[in-house]
Amino acid sequence: MGFDVQSFQEDVLDASQHGPVVVDFWAPWCGPCRVLGPVIEKLAHEQADKWTLAKVNSDQFQAEAMQYGVRGIPSVKMFYKGDVIDEFTGALPEPAIRQWLEKALPGETKELMMEVESLLDEGNLTDARVRLERILELEPTNPAAAGHMAALVALEDPERALQLADMAVTGEPRFVQIAEAVRTLLALTHEPFPEGAGANTYARAVHALYAGNPDAAIQDLIEVLKTDRYYGDDAARKLGVAIFTLLGPAHPVSTRHRRTFDMWLY
């Protein structure tokens, strides 16, 4: 089986529409390339059902090497649906390449998570939630799915949200932040609320939040900050930050109120 590319468009970009293509940018004069080549070809034969290998001579395909940012060789890039989804440079040992492949290769959960991120950016929580449930069926401890789902169910199912938060803290930092925000929100929205000048407004904010109106909740929390800055051991600030974290910076409520909210903290 030959791996040498004849047409970059057909052998890489078009082929990647049907499955992952691992592209090995190399050159005949490159010593490390001669070390990496046999290893990656061996893995390509072994894992032929998962991905295909395309060896691209960077001397012959200089325009493509420049287009995809090849600055040193060997340079290995995984193409999927026309895009580079992961890469490494240098002659890695076989165990390291196997680990890279395991992490980089797309699968159902990875594709679903890409859809989730897009749907959340669009504000389509219903469809995002359907996909998150599917990911958690396939991978019950997936930290990214757990973090997103914890944020979505925090108000309606606190017990599940806390369980999901415990799984989310094993993921990347943003999901750790979501987990902490869920815990903070649930800890600060249970009656009775602390006494103080801001108590009634704070209670109104919590009720608005549970009624599905975060905009009104944040406005009331801003009023608490104006009238009783440190009400309830800084409860208004802590709850507001948790709400903004769960909504995300692009949410209309965040873009509308975060600057004003922050202004009243100082």
Walkthrough of the structure:
There is one protein chain. The protein has 266 residues and is an alpha+beta fold. It folds into three domains: 8-104, Glutaredoxin, CATH 3.40.30; 108-186, Serine Threonine Protein Phosphatase 5, Tetratricopeptide repeat; 189-263, no CATH class. Helices cover 61% and strands 9% of the residues. Helix 5 runs antiparallel to helix 6 (125-138), helix 7 packs parallel to helix 9 and helix 10 (199-210) packs antiparallel against helix 11 (214-227).
Radius of gyration: 25 Å
Report the strand count.
4
Number of helices: 13
- Compute the separation of the termini in Å: 67 Å
* The CATH homologous superfamily of the largest domain: Glutaredoxin
The secondary-structure element order is HEHEHEEHHHHHHHHHH
CATH-scheme architecture of the largest domain: 3-Layer(aba) Sandwich
Number of domains: 3
CATH topology of the largest domain: Glutaredoxin
Q: What is the CATH class of the largest domain?
A: Alpha Beta
What's the pLDDT, averaged over the residues? Answer: 93
Structural classification:
alpha+beta
Name the shape in a single word.
elongated
Please supply descriptive tags for the structure shown above:
61% helix, alpha+beta, elongated, single chain, 3 domains, 266 residues, Glutaredoxin, four-stranded mixed β-sheet, 4 strands, Serine Threonine Protein Phosphatase 5, Tetratricopeptide repeat
